[in-house]
Amino acid sequence: ELKVEQNPLFLSMQEGKNYTIYCNYSTTSDRLYWYRQDPGKSLESLFVLLSNGAVKQEGRLMASLDTKARLSTLHITAAVHDLSATYFCAVDMVDTGNQFYFGTGTSLTVIP
Amino acid sequence: NAGVMQNPRHLVRRRGQEARLRCSPMKGHSHVYWYRQLPEEGLKFMVYLQKENIIDESGMPKERFSAEFPKEGPSILRIQQVVRGDSAAYFCASSPRSAVGEQFFGPGTRLTVL
Question: What is the distance in angstroms between the Cα of B28 and the nearest Cα belonging to chain A?
Answer without folding.
Answer: 18
